[in-house]
Amino acid sequence: MSALATAPAEQRTQADRAAAVAQLYMQKTPRAEIAQALDVSRAQVDKLLSELFAEGMPQLMRRSMTDAQVRAIHTAYLRGGSIDELAAAIGFHGSAVRRQMRKKKLPLRRELAAGKTPAHAEQQLITALLMARVHELRQARGLTVEQLAHESDLTMSTLQYLDGTLRDPRLSTVLRLCRGLGTTAAELAGDLPLPVERRPRLARAGASG
Questions:
Q1: N or C: which end of the chain has fewer CB within 10 A?
Q2: Tens digits of per-residue pLDDT, 23-38?
Q3: pTM reported for the whole predicted model
Q4: Could you write out the three-class secondary structure of the chain?
């Protein structure tokens, strides 16, 4: 009879839990999901893994998301997708993707809508999708942001301004970006959603109430 079989029940439970943690970890399950699956705290999972590593269990190399992956998930999310489902499809956890989005200052949908009119939120969403497409094409062509600015005859501050504020770009700016990317307006913006929200009308000076 094995030593485990004759061990107290509490010790056997601990051994079973460690084995389950090890199995899920080797299947590349995120630690937060291991904790949820086994109904234990994240701290307990971390402690068990530390003990398993000390006993010789190999540590998996952590994969890091590329900028292109983060931006692709963000674009799909802005179009209505779920961050958690999109992240899981390429083997990452949704919380890790959200952290990367915050680091890159990529807006979430609730941030676009907060304190703004529906028309303003809609315009920012469209600009966010446009800039995501710009980044996608820029990376596909092997251009740095500086090179794109030079080829488009735009300043770095203009690109950073559009990325940071999501203001409605001028048509001339969009066309300059097309030139810098060596593409057409149709390829750059052809699949963007059309605005449907009405902008609030400004009262004309001198209009009677």
A1: C
A2: 988 887 878 888 888 9
A3: 0.57
A4: CCHHHHCCHHHHHHHHHHHHHHHHHHCCCCHHHHHHHHCCCHHHHHHHHHHHHHCCCCCCCCCCCCHHHHHHHHHHHHCCCCHHHHHHHCCCCHHHHHHHHHHCCCCCHHHHHCCCCHHHHHHHHHHHHHHHHHHHHHHHCCCCHHHHHHHHCCCHHHHHHHHHHCCCCCHHHHHHHHHHHCCCHHHHHCCCCCCCCCCCCCCCCCCCC
